[in-house]
Specification:
By secondary structure, the chain is an alpha+beta fold. The protein folds into 3 domains: about 10-170, Prim-pol fold (2-Layer Sandwich); about 190-280, no CATH class; about 290-405, Winged helix-like DNA-binding domain superfamily/Winged helix DNA-binding domain (Arc Repressor Mutant, subunit A). About 35% of the residues lie in helices and about 25% in strands.
C-alpha cells in the first residue's frame, strides 16, 4: 500500500503505507515515536520528552514520521524503554558476552556505535555516562531509522521485538553495579537519612540492605544462621555472628570513606549490632530450598504403617542418606529436629511424637532405653548410603555433601 497525500487515512492505514514506520512500530511496540530532522537528527516539534503514546499514534505524527527520520523516546511513557549506546563494536561485544539475555532484543547500528534497546521490569535507572557507553532513560531520544543517504546509516541490526529485562540483573562493572543498587535502594527507602529532633539519623533499613549487598552476608531464618557467599567456591558458607559483626563494621567504615561521611559518628559497636539485627530481616539468604528438600524426603521415603515405628535419630540418619543419594543439601541435626515435626504432622494427619520407643542401648548391649520418635510410621523405600561411602541408616556416610547445622 503506497502513500497518497490526497487520501484520508486512519493511523493503522497510514502505518501500512510506509515500511520504515511499520518496522519501527513492530520492533518497538508501545513506544513513543518521534519525527527527526533528516540532517540534524533533532526532534521536529516541542516537548517530545513528555509526549505520550496517544500523541505518537496520531495521524498527524505518523504523517510526519513517513517524511522524516525516526527516533523513539525513552521513559515511562514508552513502557520504561531504556537504551545502552556503546561507543565501539568491541565494547558492545564484550558487554553482550556477559549479558546474553540481551542478544535477542532490538539493536540499532550507527557507524561504529551500537545501541541496545530494552524495557525495564521494576527498577528504572536515571540516565548517565558509563565507561565506553551511555545509559539513556527518561526523556532521551534514540534515532532508530535514518531516511537520508549520508554517512550516519542508522538501521536496525537486530529487529527482534524489544525485550523486557530486570535491569539490576545485568552485569556491569562492580562500581557501576553498586551505584545502580544504591539508586534502587534510595528509590525503595526514599532516603538514606531520616530527620529526628532537628538532626539527620541514618535510615537503618537502607544501610542494612546496602551492607548485606557489600558483605554478601545474608540470614537464613529457618536455620537461624548467617551465611556468606564465597565467590571463589560459588557457594554460601555459614559464618558466626562475631565474623558478621567484624565484616559489617569494615564495610560500614568503607561506606563512610567513599560515599557517606555523615555516617562517621555512627561507626560504633552498638550501631553495628543494631544494623546486624536489621540485616536479619532485610537480607534473607537465597539458599537451596531446604524446606522443599525435607518435604521431598517426607513424601518419598515415609509412609503410614501399622505396627512400625521410627526414632528421631533413625529418621535423621535416613534423611541424611536420602539427601546424599539425591544430591540435595543436608540440614544439621538441630535444624532438622526443629523443622521436620510440623512437616510429618502436616503430611500424616494425627502422627504425634512418642517418647517411649524401645531401642537397645548403645552403651550397654542387651539393655533397652526409651527413645523419641513416631509410632505407625516407617520407611517405604530402602535408603542406602551413596556409592563409595561407609555407613548404615544408624551411622550414615558423609557422601561429601554440605552439612548445615
Amino acid at each position: 500500500m503506497s502513500f497518497d497525500p490526497e487520501e484520508s487515512y486512519t493511523p493503522k492505514q497510514l502505518i501500512a503505507t510506509d515500511y520504515a514506520v511499520e518496522r519501527v512500530i513492530k520492533t518497538l511496540p508501545g513506544t513513543v515515536c518521534v519525527p527527526l530532522d533528516k540532517v540534524t537528527l533533532n526532534p521536529i516539534g516541542l516537548d517530545w520528552e513528555s509526549a505520550d503514546l496517544k500523541r505518537s499514534m496520531s495521524t498527524k505524527n505518523i504523517s510526519q514520521l513517513i517524511s522524516s527520520s525516526i527516533g523513539v523516546v525513552c521513559g515511562q511513557n514508552s513502557g520504561n524503554l531504556a537504551a545502552l549506546r556503546f561507543h565501539s563494536r568491541y565494547g558492545f561485544n564484550k558487554f553482550i558476552a556477559v549479558n546474553p539475555i540481551l542478544t535477542d532484543t532490538a539493536t540499532v547500528s550507527e557507524r561504529d556505535s551500537v545501541t541496545i534497546l530494552f524495557k525495564c521490569a521494576g527498577f528504572y535507572p536515571q540516565s548517565r555516562p558509563l565507561e565506553g557507553l551511555d545509559l539513556l532513560t527518561d526523556g532521551r531520544i534514540v534515532p532508530v531509522y535514518d531516511r537520508t543517504e549520508h554517512a550516519a546509516d542508522i538501521h536496525f541490526e537486530n529487529a527482534n521485538p524489544v525485550k523486557e529485562v530486570d535491569f539490576l540483573g545485568l552485569n556491569f562493572s562492580a562500581e557501576h553495579k553498586e551505584d545502580f543498587y544504591i539508586e534502587w535502594l534510595i528509590t525503595k527507602h526514599h532516603s538514606q537519612y531520616t530527620p529526628s529532633k532537628g538532626r539527620l539519623l541514618p535510615n537503618d533499613a537502607f544501610f542494612a540492605e546496602l551492607l548485606t549487598y557489600k558483605t554478601r552476608i545474608k540470614y537464613e531464618p529457618r536455620i537461624r544462621s548467617f551465611f556468606e557467599f564465597d565467590i571463589t567456591k560459588s557457594k554460601w558458607q555459614k559464618v558466626n555472628e562475631d565474623v558478621v559483626l567484624s565484616k559489617v563494621f569494615q564495610a560500614l567504615f568503607q561506606i563512610v570513606q567513599e560515599r557517606a561521611s555523615k555516617l562517621l559518628p555512627f561507626c560504633t559497636d552498638d550501631y553495628v549490632r543494631r544494623l546486624v539485627k536489621t540485616m536479619r530481616l532485610s537480607g534473607v539468604v537465597d539458599l537451596p530450598d531446604y524446606q522443599a528438600g525435607l518435604q521431598q524426603f517426607v513424601d518419598t521415603a515415609l509412609e503410614s504403617r501399622k505396627g512400625s515405628n521410627i526414632t528421631t535419630l533413625e529418621l535423621f540418619a535416613a534423611y541424611r542418606v536420602f539427601c546424599q543419594n539425591q544430591q540435595l543439601p543436608v540440614l544439621g541435626d538441630t535444624a532438622f529436629q526443629r523443622i521436620v515435626p510440623a512437616l510429618i504432622e502436616g503430611t500424616f494427619s494425627g502422627k504425634n511424637r512418642s517418647h517411649s520407643l524401645r531401642r537397645e542401648s548403645e552403651d550397654r548391649p542387651g539393655d533397652h532405653t526409651n527413645r523419641r520418635g513416631y509410632r505407625d510410621l516407617g520407611l517405604k523405600i530402602t535408603v542406602l548410603p551413596p556409592t563409595g561411602t561407609a555407613g548404615t541408616p544408624g551411622t550414615p556416610g558423609t557422601g561429601g555433601m554440605q552439612n548445615i547445622s
